[in-house]
Amino acid sequence: MSGITTHVLDTARGKPAPGVPVVLEVLEVPDPPRWRRLGEATTDDDGRAKRLLPEGTVLIPGTYRITFATGVYYRALEIEGFYPEAAIVFDVRDAAQHYHVPLLLSPYGYTTYRGS
Q: What are the φ and ψ backbone dihedral angles of 111, each rounded to 5 degrees?
């Protein structure tokens, strides 16, 4: 399993959110910010993206960003949403740990937390 995973749940529908494109980046330079793409995935039928880091990529401490193309998901459902994407920026301090970053999604809001 990747050192960084995510799970998208559609709280308005009470179901996992399959088919959400997800991009993982790491901050290379803080000022001005320059992000480097590490990997991408699309959530599976259970709303999970289990492999965001490419095989053999070593997780290192730093600042990471996961961007979810929520607009793609809602357009496929023919639902009008407010946010075309949701970006979550977080710090990896201990690269030996697993980082699970869930997204709870609805057409007009979203939230996240440090998962397990």
A: -145, 165
Percent of the chain with pLDDT strictly greater than 70: 98
Query: Cα-atom radius of gyration of the chain, to the nearest Å?
Result: 14
| Within-domain flag for 114 | no
Q: What is the pLDDT of residues 79-95, one digit of tens each?
A: 999 999 999 999 999 99
Which residue, 82, 57, 61, 87, is CA-closest to 71? 82
pLDDT digits (tens, 9 = 90+) for 20-64: 999 999 999 888 889 999 999 999 999 999 889 988 888 999 999
> CB–CB of 103/12 below 8 Å?
no
CATH code for the domain of 10: 2.60.40.180
The whole domain housing 23 covers: 4-109
Neighbour count for residue 47 (Cβ, 10 Å): 21
Cβ 22 vs Cβ 112: under 8 Å = no
